[in-house]
């Protein structure tokens, strides 16, 4: 439960200037995003950027919190037909921690992760997920 002395004026983290709004936004999104005050844009707090190897078997996620990451997973969105969701998947991935980055191994074959679009999540030791980029698995 969040208790404040008075009402926050906004939940928009970009324009929040009063202490109540800043406090609520920090509690709700503190570990997910931060505001770049120079550009006034929200940026992901865990995963800053990523690159894929030429052969597509590994990718690197740049994160200042690499040492605290405990899980990496792909989640495929559902494809609902006739009230049955056959397409949704959770695929845990193996990874190694480096200074400021993670090297993640892609799924070995299409039986584990059929071709399609997936969200890539990294989770820290508190269970806080990153903002997920959409990736295409071939």
Description:
The protein has 138 residues and is mainly beta. The chain has a domain at 49-137: Immunoglobulins (Immunoglobulin-like). The chain is 8% helix and 40% strand. It contains one helix and twelve strands. The protein has one helix at residues 19-29; strands at residues 33-36, 41-44, 49-52, 58-62, 69-76, 80-81, 84-85, 89-92, 95-98, 101-105, 116-124, 134-137. The strands form four sheets. It has a four-stranded antiparallel beta sheet, with no helix packed on it. Strand 3 (49-52) and strand 4 (58-62) form a beta hairpin. The longest helix has 11 residues, at 19-29. The termini are far apart.
**Straight-line distance between termini:** 43 Å
Main sheet specs:
4 strands, antiparallel
As laid out across the biggest beta sheet, the strand order is: 3-4-10-9
Overall pLDDT score: 76
CATH level-four homologous superfamily name of one domain: Immunoglobulins
Helix/strand/pairing category: mainly beta
Number of strands: 12
Secondary-structure element pattern, one letter each: HEEEEEEEEEEEE
Which CATH class of one domain applies here?
Answer: Mainly Beta
Report the β-strand fraction as a percent range: 35-45%
**Helix content range of the residues, please?**
under 10%
| CATH architecture descriptor text of one domain | Sandwich
H/I helix tally = 1
Shape: globular
Low-confidence stretches: none
Rg value: 18 Å
The third-level CATH topology of one domain is Immunoglobulin-like
């Amino acid at each position: 439960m969040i208790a404040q002395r008075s009402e926050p004026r906004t939940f928009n983290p970009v324009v929040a200037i009063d202490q109540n709004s800043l406090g609520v936004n920090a509690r709700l999104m503190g570990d997910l995003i931060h505001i770049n005050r120079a550009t006034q844009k929200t940026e992901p707090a865990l995963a800053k950027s990523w690159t894929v190897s030429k052969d597509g078997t590994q990718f690197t996620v740049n994160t200042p919190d690499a040492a605290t990451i405990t899980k990496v997973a792909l989640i495929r969105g559902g494809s609902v037909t006739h009230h049955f969701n056959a397409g949704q998947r959770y695929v845990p991935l193996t990874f190694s921690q480096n200074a400021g980055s993670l090297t993640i191994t892609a799924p070995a074959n299409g039986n584990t992760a059929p071709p399609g679009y997936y969200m890539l999540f990294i989770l820290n030791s508190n269970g806080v997920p990153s903002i997920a980029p959409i990736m295409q698995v071939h």
